[in-house]
Write a structure and sequence with these properties.
The chain is mainly alpha-helical. It folds into two domains: 1-81, no CATH class; 99-156, no CATH class. The protein has helices spanning 39-59, 83-92, 100-113, 118-125, 130-136, 143-156; strands spanning 13-14, 19-22, 33-36. It has a three-stranded antiparallel sheet with strand order 1-2-3, with no helix packed on it. Helix 3 (100-113) packs antiparallel against helix 4. The model is unreliable at 159-171 (pLDDT under 50).
Length: 171
């Protein structure tokens, strides 16, 4: 399977609650999970669902896939490979040659940077072990500098500077 995205059926999407459910066996780690959608992704998936519903109407039958072929030749059939469409989309977005897998790393990094606890990020991304998660959570050259800035800002936020710990000696 090229991508777990291609296996999604409409029944996996709950726009009312704002979730996308992966059944056990759908993902590489074989575990099921529920992903909560951002408002932007919720809107985009709602638009996709409307396209599929239009396809239902045009074909006179329900198409179960969330991401079927929409063109006339294979309308409603399962997409098996989207490398060409991916390459065209990346070129149009100004990032030619981008790897799909890089977006998984970007998602991990963005969630961690936003302050989402790493265990929660692991649950969302389906990483079972710390070692695999760490391959996706790449430390950039600017991260240590950002850590120093945060520590400095945190220490400046203390209101009681008269009781700074100096190795057991207080002022």
């Amino acid at each position: 399977m090229q991508s777990e995205v291609l296996t999604f059926e409409r029944r996996h999407l709950d726009l009312e609650v704002g979730t996308l459910r992966l059944d056990p066996g759908m993902a590489k780690n074989e575990d099921g999970r529920v992903v909560y959608l951002t408002s932007e992704v919720r809107t985009l998936l709602g638009e996709q669902l409307e396209r599929v519903r239009d396809l239902d109407w045009g074909r006179g039958q329900i198409v179960p896939r969330l991401f079927p072929h929409l063109g006339p030749r294979l309308a409603g059939e399962r997409i098996r490979d989207f490398r060409k469409a991916w390459a065209e989309a990346c070129k149009a977005a100004g990032v030619p040659g981008a790897f799909r897998h890089a977006f998984r790393r970007t998602a991990v990094r963005n969630m961690v940077t936003a302050g989402v606890p790493e265990r929660v990020v692991m649950k969302i991304t389906g990483h079972k072990t710390r070692s695999v998660f760490d391959r996706y959570h790449i430390v950039s050259p600017g991260d240590p500098q950002e850590a120093a800035r945060r520590i400095h800002g945190h220490s400046l936020g203390h209101s009681r500077t008269d009781s700074v710990d100096r190795g057991g000696v207080s002022s």
